Amino acid sequence: WHSLQTESQSRFEKGISPVLAQIALERAVELLQEHAGAELVEIVDCNYFKNRKQVVKFDVKKIEKLLGEKVETKKAFEILENLGFIIEDRNQVQTKVRVPYWRLDIEGQFDFVEEIGRIRGYENVKIQHLMMAAKPSPGNSQREFEWKIKDNLTALAFDEVISYSFYGNRDAEIGKISGEHFELENPNSEQQNLMRKSLLPGIIQAGKLNQKNFDEFCLFEAGRVYLPEKDQYEEMKISGACFDKLLSLPDLFYQSKEKVRTFVEKTSGKIAEFKSLEKSSFNFLHLTRGAEILIDGKKIGEMGEINPMVAKKYKIKKQFVVFELDFQALFESQADKKIFQPIQKFPFVERDLAMFVDSRTEAGVVEKNILKIGGKMLREIKLFDIFEDKKNNKKSLAFHLKFGEAEFTLKGEEVDKKMEEIMESLEKNGFEVRK
Fold first, then answer.
1. Which residue, of 13, 114, 199, 207, is most buried by count of CB atoms within 10 Å of its CB?
2. The model scores a pTM over 0.85
């Protein structure tokens, strides 16, 4: 209680045999009789420890099994006897060994093998090779894919956050997260009484907090959600948030879209498509400023600006873009084969292309048209500018195009011809190309 170190404590905390008291008493009596002329009248002993002598059964075959080397039974018994052990029933299958009172560390027959090996010398045990082929344990492909996801997002300047696996009834109401939840019997607070069914409440809260300290950031979280209606109950999701104080919301959305596209294509090895968000799983996303993310026509996630009503209820001063992807869908969408290509030896020829389109026309539709006509010569396309003319219900889209060939340097005339084909195709589809 007072943390006082005493002589008794230092002795008994190491384990002292009660028999030592008897031995010490006998020696004291002997000295008193010899040197002081004392006479022993009576000894009182409750016989507490004397009847608790430890006897352990010892299977001699365990020596070879544990040490990996055969030791003669006679030699093994000799070592134990020299250490104070008493051997009984030598001819039995399991020999009985009486443990000396001072060896409180002996708990079973494995300790006898350790004593024999120690005295005989562990350095004398010969090295033996494995008798079977050792195989590496099978890899966990989903865990490796999770690490790949984190590496790819980190390479795109995202910082990982880890939020609580819970949210409150208020979060479920704001996001219109319907259905049954796993509810905690003893939650930390009213704001954390439900097991999460989406990562978006946590990433939105993290984005709100980071807005106070940073002018720009990209955050992500890879974690589990808990779904009572599913057989497996648990699913992995990847969620993220992007913010830049200096960018307008359209520019921020398209910049975030390119980051998500790069991440999905680098992770899956397939082309990512974006489609206007017709109906969101929850109420967190802006319905007219969001997109579904698809691979091979299959939806793997959603992204978009935060719903203004949600932003108001969370008291978010400046909007930012969020996304959520299904881990399993992304995992299953991976390309079966990896294609390796040599690094481009010959220079690219770059061109810019701008056009007026109807305000309801998706940039992805225009992009598909350009890619189709561009063919293999068109190596890269990037939307770098968008301007909305709300008065005339028009918008201007500007794309940066890169042309190149693997075997030779393209001539300007060849690229000009391909550009003419692209512009003719766009005009046939009703787009007004700016020349």
1. 199
2. no
